[in-house]
Amino acid sequence: MEKGLLIVVSGPSGVGKGTVLKRIMDDPELKLSFSVSMTTREMRPGEQEGVNYYYVSKEEFLRARENGELLESAEFVGNYYGTPLKEVERLRAEGRNVLLEIEVQGCRQVIEKVEDALTIFIVPPNMEELEKRIRGRATEPEEIVQERLAKAEREMQMVSQYRYVVCNDDIDLAADIIRVIILHHMKKKF
Fold it and tell me: Of 94, 117, 128, which is closest to residue 2 (Cα–Cα)?
């Protein structure tokens, strides 16, 4: 069985990564499996353990990182995030294309470990639209909103690290472009 792709998708908070990726996840031709990350942050309303994240204590997270059990890890606003390596390896070995929705610093770690990772950065049409989307969530205090906006500005400077950059000014179009990118790379493997 042919090993699956490792697909890294990043972009600023509020750019619509999750919404765009939901549009392609159920496409059987893409053979996608979403990699569920581990986090120390609190569960948000509507989220589920093992679906959105694996919610763990800071001690559990740090132990996993020290033991080399994470493909990548990052810290943001006092919380840790990371990708369990064992699960990614298992899915790829089964021929699944594993999708990681991770931060820019995590992508750098993945690129160092996985030479053939397919990297895609999703950008907003402009920063005003991004701010509107972040504020539209109404889930975080102003201080966190400001941190997310400042971080987005820094992340936008990192797009050159990615093989592809996709603008999410139309959800369906952005999803279609990402679908074509994945199909192209699947065909290159065979």
Answer: 94
